[in-house]
Amino acid sequence: MMGFLSGGIIAEVALRIAGYSYPEFYVLDQSRGYSLRPNAEGWYRKEGEAYVRINSDGLRDREHAIVKPQDTIRIAILGDSYPEAFPVSVAEAFWSVMERKLQECDAFAGKKIEVINFGVSGYGTAQELLTLRNQVWKYSPDIVLLAVTTNNDITDNLRELKKTDEIPYFVYRDNRLALNDSYKNSRAFVMRQSWVSRLGRWFRDHSRVIQAVIQGHHGLKIRLASWRAKPSPGAPRAATTPKENEDSQHKAELFSRSEELGTDNLVYLEPENALWSDAWRVTECLLIEMRDEVIAGGAKFAVITLSNGPQVLPDPNSREAFKKRFGITDLFYPDNRIKALGARERITVLTLAPELQEHAQRNNVFLHGFGVDVGNGHWNAMGHRVAGELIAKKICEGTFPK
User: How many distinct structural domains can be found in the chain?
Assistant: First the structure.
């Protein structure tokens, strides 16, 4: 027992000296299920590497005064892990790039531009609408931008596809949206508020050894998923040349990593069942609801559809192979569907993926992923830079209504 304890202490000291840190950045939230934990800070290395600080109001951003300064245009960014941007520094995040670029153009008559980031990983449109209601308005934004991650925002809006009971959802009932916050009474949510869970969170916050065990378990799950995704040795294969075999193996690994990182390939297809039809209907109604609330609050509103890794692979052959594998005819189906909604409902929609694809192909660069996972996952620093510059360019050129 003493040996085990001594070993644990030595490991704890060694990890601290090495700068190892995986703190819990999230906290329970009674209106959204969870939110970013005010004043939390530490290293994030699950994808990319950045030292993350959460400000005193629970935003992955610098501190902002509640009262808007004079001669300032405030832009609120709502979204999920893309604006949260843990894999990169705050200065590299697309909303910081956008802020700097907007300051250089004449779109706002020389006023100071201040962008405030409300992005939280895993949020769907429902939680983003609740964030607007409960957190955004006190900052008096002039513009609200909703960043839509099409690969999972649609599924995040339906309990049956999200497959968690620990967050709120909106449901379409009697021709209108209704909030379902029954998660507050779920066993899992109640248990997470117990003293046992609080004690566990305290140990995770303060013990690098426990953080290492949790991260090791996470890494093992990913490796097991990758192993299960590999074809069985006895599976029949078509005859291929060594070069073709090497290319197909690389593409298979690319696709399996994409799936491990949560890309739901059905989003590129026209809905073929009631669940997906319902998910799209709820999502579209939430976008309209958010537009109405933003306009009623005296601000301007726009939706920005981001990009998914397969959409912007620099090699057109890789994109075609991806489409063929999953029976996809249009990689921009979700972006075009949201853009069509915008045309019908007078919602400004800025689509980034087609232009990001063109940039990636022209320059032969990956805008998503880090290290061995290049091409998959979230935007890397280059992806954030190009996206931020592109958004600012569209706004400066008058795409956004003045």
Answer: 1
